[in-house]
Amino acid sequence: MDQIIVTGNGELSGEIPIAGAKNACLTLMPATLLSEEPLTLTNAPRLSDIKTMTELLQSLGAEVTSLQGGQVLALSSHDLSNHVAEYDIVRKMRASNLVLGPMLARLGHAVVSLPGGCAIGARPMDLHIRGLEALGAEIELRDGYLHAKAPQGLKGATVEFSFASVGATENVLMAATLAKGTTVLKNAAREPEIVDLATCLRKMGARIEGDGTSQITIEGVDRLSGATHPVVADRIELGTYMLAPAIAGGEVECLGGRLDLVGAFVEKLDAAGIGVEETGRGLKVARRNGRIRAVDVTTEPFPGFPTDLQAQMMALLCTADGTSVLEEKIFENRFMHAPELMRMGAQIDVHGGTATVTGVDRLRGAPVMATDLRASVSLILAGLAAEGETVLSRVYHLDRGYEHLVRKLEGVGARIERVKGQ
Ligand code: UD1
């Protein structure tokens, strides 16, 4: 298997282009199932998770064509020949469950495998199921598969989520676009990916208001049309690359970055002593002198600090002056990067959902590996400023969420290479 070798090499400088958001694209793609007409997505990221979603949609009878080297996805669900999302594909990626709502709304029935265990916690689907049941769906679990049907079609209803789940909001929002009457989603997730999905659905003819707030109202329509839509910038990729100069020193401009996508994160960078400036082309991040300050971080649903940047932020705080407390409130078991960072000399104490990080002067390179996407990239970031060589195994996690990672970091002066495995 491939490995990535990073050697701490001093300050970084230059530009990094930010791609379209993985998580937005993974919810926009299944929206094709809602309409007989073509959906074209531009600014799509080139990632293995997008290939997995492509494979899943094709298995359902949708046509997915990748154009312009993968930056444009042409999708068409004119004829859907199959309504079963098989375990073999779903188990690879939890976002596969986003085909459930659209298939049910369009066809009146759907069979979708439960995703199963995942490295960052149990991640059940109860909120998706309860939301769709409120719209009149009958859902049964048999042989590891959710069997869903809506013999009389879906009907608008009020759905109040007990937690503002991103995936459950997306699934029920998509289903409600074709339900009869009005659906009101209360305690809905407010993530930018939800706003991007609602914007695309409106282009397809859906009637949606309130996305970006915790109450979304959907007026069902009989059918949706085609549309062309650019995928919003990836706020997690953005935050990750903003941390590169914050950790290694120097100045990097993240092209396409927007402050409104990373507000809570930028507040923490500021508290740590890292400067962020809007340039008109993106966000410029600079670290010039001395050690950064310790800061406490609690992950929360948007607009709070994102759980998907917690591991990368921890890598920064490992060398801060003082003690930082990181609290993980979204997923249990999301500190698997901590023992790996400790192999590089970090001082971290994990108790349940809290990690206490006592800053050290410098990390030292080491062989490391990680069990999820964001944990993996946090080790690369740590390696940028560590003394000597950091060798990361299980690189395939990174391919799920960071396009051209090595090339982008090399472009700002990092010493990083990917070595082919046997
Ligand atoms: C999405 C993102 C993921 C991000 C997460 C939180 C995609 C493809 N993935 O995941 O990268 O980390 O949002 O910002 O967009 N929960 C339940 N029951 C449910 C659904 C969720 O208990 O039916 C719980 C989960 O176990 C977790 C919390 O709710 O503790 C958040 O999950 P959710 O917001 O649904 O995250 P995902 O949509 O899975």
Question: Could you describe the 3D structure shown?
Answer:
There is one protein chain. Helix 4 runs parallel beside helix 6. The chain has 2 domains: 3-18 and 233-419, Enolpyruvate transferase domain (UDP-n-acetylglucosamine1-carboxyvinyl-transferase, Chain, Alpha-beta prism), CATH 3.65.10; 22-230, Enolpyruvate transferase domain (UDP-n-acetylglucosamine1-carboxyvinyl-transferase, Chain), CATH 3.65.10.10. It is built from 14 helices and 24 strands. A 4-stranded mixed β-sheet has the order 22-23-1-24. The protein has a 4-stranded mixed β-sheet with strand order 2-15-17-16, with helices on one face. Strands 4-5-3-14 form a 4-stranded mixed β-sheet. The protein is of the alpha/beta class. The longest helix is centred in the middle third of the chain and has 14 residues, at 235-248. It binds uridine-diphosphate-N-acetylglucosamine (UD1). Uridine-diphosphate-N-acetylglucosamine binds next to helix 1, helix 5 and helix 6.
